[in-house]
Structure formats: structure tokens, C-alpha cells
Write a structure and sequence with these properties.
329 residues, alpha/beta, 4-stranded parallel β-sheet, binds threonylcarbamoyladenylate, binds magnesium ion
Length: 329
């Protein structure tokens, strides 16, 4: 199959709708990462998504809808705070997990009772969702375990020959996947950290928990138990207080005739002037936005990416560190 990349326009959106209504799958931009989109009510489309990614069959998909879609047709909204969250954070990088009403097929949720729903803010994505006016399930458009794509070319690199169309909506601004929040109980629980932080959620709901995973626990968000986000080259991860070790590792790789790159925030990069650097930026937002882009750039030019951790795990850095540990740790 030939895979074409098209700028997102009303014409390419119409083409994408036709493919989706036929049970096909397409690459779709969102404000977080690119998704691999299919009709959530069509088991054949869902099967194609799992196959194209090589995704484990027990990891459910998120349903994406436009901002005027009536969520109550898809899920049970049992907690009053949900309406406040919708008002505060949608459209945007917040996914909420509800009890499903079964409109999205059971294959998409791996037979589970719940459905994760998200309303993306990316304008082109909104146009597509509005045009199709049905729940579109979309995991990140990478091969399973690989780093998530933030440009149409990244999607092409993993999905060429497997899907007919990638809608190009530019580089994703958010850069890491949405926050996944369980809203089935009286206190919301973060299952996957992202750009909508615990502090932001608490400011609306008063309370918010973070799901902690220990071995043996029932995993509530199946995706978090898998290896994830890994670039194709070797990696290492050090703390901000281990810069001597970062330098030693860099020199060791070089002495073996291989190419090291240090991936870090700008304030650390300034200390390694003259070395090969993948600079992530200054602010937490910038760093999140650049993380996957730099990992995917790094895997092409480096033999080893030596990453330096963030100064803390607060706010957006919680989501950044969660990805950094899985990709480079
Ligand atoms: O930003 C995003 O969320 C991107 C874009 C494309 O929207 N999508 C994305 O999908 O990251 P994916 O499939 O790569 O990750 C979905 C995560 C997984 O960790 C999965 O286990 C969790 O959401 N999830 C999906 N449905 C769930 C459910 N019903 N209950 C708990 N966790 C769920
Ligand atoms: Mg993913």
C-alpha cells in the first residue's frame, strides 16, 4: 500500500472521512502527538489499528470526539465534577475514563467496562472529528514500544506501507500524550501524567490522586505496564547531580569510535558547550513539546543518547520524567 502525506484541508479531511467510513485507518494530528485513527464503532477498523502498531491486545484505545459531541451518548457521567473538568480543560490534552455505554465497540476497549474519551484541541483534528461526527479511536501513531510521533514524517517512518493517508497538521505543540484521568469515582485519579497536571485538576475538583503502580497491583491503565517510547539507539539516563558521570559516559562512547549525544534542558546544555547536544528548551512546556522530537532526531544521528533528568517531578515534569524514564532509563 502506498502511504501519502497530505496537508490537512477540507479536501484531505473529506478523503480521510471516506477511508474511515470504509473501515480504513489514517494518521491524524492532535495537539499532543499524532494518532492512528479508525472508526471506534467498527471492529474491523479497530483490528487494523492493533495490527498496524503491533499493539498488545489488552491495551484499550482512546475515543476522540469533536467539542460539541454529546458525551452522554457514549459514557455514563456519574460525577458532577466532570462538568467542571470539561469546562476547564476541553478541548485539550485531558482524557477521561468513564463507564462505557457500549457504542464504541468492545474490541476497542479490550472487552473492558470503561471507555477513555478525549476532545482534542488541534483545529484540523476538530475539523475531521466534526466532519465524521462519530467516535474515532486513536492510539499514538507509532509502532508499539517506539517513541510517539509529533510530525507527519515521524508517522510515515513507522507506518509507511501500512496506511493509505497521513493528514499533516504540523508539529504537535503539546509533545507528550494526554493526561489520562479516571473519573468513575468521587475523587479523580491520574492514570497517566500529562500536560493537564494534578495541580490544575485539583484547582477545579479540590482533590486528585495519582495512581501508583506496584508489582502485583491491578493495573488500571493497561498501557503503563509496557515498555514504551524507546528510540532505536542505545540510551542512558542520569540525574542533574550526576553531570560528571554524564561527561564520563560521553567520553567513553567517543573513545569506542561511536557518536554520543547529550539530551537535556538548556540550563544543563550550557555546561556542555562544544559537545553533541539535543537541547530540549527552557520551560517545562518547551521541554515537553520537544522531548519526542529530540528522541526521534537523536536515534538517527546518535549511537547513544545520554539523557539528563529534569530538576524535579512536579507539574508538567511529572509527565516528562515518566516518559524519560521509560524511553531512556
Ligand atoms: O494524547 C493522546 O492521548 C494520544 C493522542 C493520539 O490522542 N493518544 C494516546 O493513545 O496516547 P495511546 O493508545 O498511545 O495511549 C492510551 C493510554 C494507554 O496508556 C491506555 O492504557 C490508556 O490510555 N487507556 C485507554 N483506555 C483506557 C481505559 N478504558 N481505562 C484505563 N486506561 C485506558
Ligand atoms: Mg502510545
Amino acid at each position: 500500500m502506498e502511504t501519502v502525506i497530505k496537508q490537512i484541508t477540507s479536501e484531505s479531511v473529506a478523503t480521510a472521512c471516506k477511508i474511515l467510513l470504509d473501515g480504513g485507518i489514517v494518521g491524524m494530528p492532535t495537539e499532543t502527538v499524532y494518532g492512528l485513527a479508525g472508526d471506534g464503532t467498527n471492529p474491523d477498523a479497530v483490528k487494523r489499528i492493533f495490527e498496524a502498531k503491533g499493539r498488545p491486545s489488552d491495551n484499550p484505545l482512546i475515543a476522540h470526539v469533536h467539542k460539541d459531541y454529546d458525551l452522554s451518548t457514549l459514557v455514563q457521567i456519574n460525577q458532577p465534577y466532570v462538568y467542571d473538568l470539561i469546562k476547564a480543560f476541553t478541548p485539550g490534552p485531558l482524557t477521561m475514563v468513564f463507564i462505557s455505554k457500549g457504542v464504541v465497540c468492545s474490541q476497542a476497549v479490550c472487552g473492558g467496562e470503561t471507555l477513555a474519551v478525549r476532545i482534542p484541541s488541534h483545529q484540523g483534528c476538530q475539523e475531521l472529528l466534526r466532519a465524521i461526527n462519530r467516535p474515532i479511536v486513536a492510539p499514538s501513531a507509532n509502532l508499539s514500544k517506539h517513541t510517539s510521533p509529533v510530525t507527519a514524517m515521524h508517522v510515515y517512518d513507522d507506518m509507511k506501507g501500512k496506511i493509505p493517508l497521513i493528514l499533516d497538521g504540523g508539529k504537535c505543540q503539546g509533545g507528550i500524550e494526554s493526561t489520562v484521568l479516571d473519573v468513575t469515582e468521587s475523587v479523580p485519579r491520574i492514570l497517566r501524567a500529562g500536560l493537564v497536571t494534578k495541580e490544575m485538576i485539583e484547582s477545579v475538583t479540590g482533590r486528585c490522586e495519582i495512581a501508583m503502580h506496584r508489582d502485583g497491583d491491578k493495573v488500571r491503565s493497561p498501557g503503563v505496564k509496557y515498555k514504551h517510547y524507546r528510540p532505536k539507539c542505545e540510551t542512558a539516563l542520569y540525574g542533574e547531580d550526576q553531570l560528571d558521570q554524564v561527561y564520563a559516559h560521553y567520553e567513553k562512547v567517543k573513545s569506542q569510535g561511536k557518536t554520543p549525544y547529550i539530551m537535556c534542558a538548556d540550563h544543563i546544555a550550557n555546561k556542555f558547550d562544544g559537545l553533541n547536544l539535543l537541547r530540549l528548551g527552557k520551560t517545562a512546556e518547551e521541554i515537553a513539546s520537544n522531548l519526542y522530537d529530540k528522541l526521534l532526531e537523536g536515534e538517527k544521528i546518535a549511537d547513544v543518547i545520554i539523557a539528563v533528568a529534569m530538576p524535579n517531578e512536579e507539574g508538567i515534569f511529572l509527565g516528562v520524567m515518566n516518559r524519560l524514564k521509560k524511553s531512556c532509563g
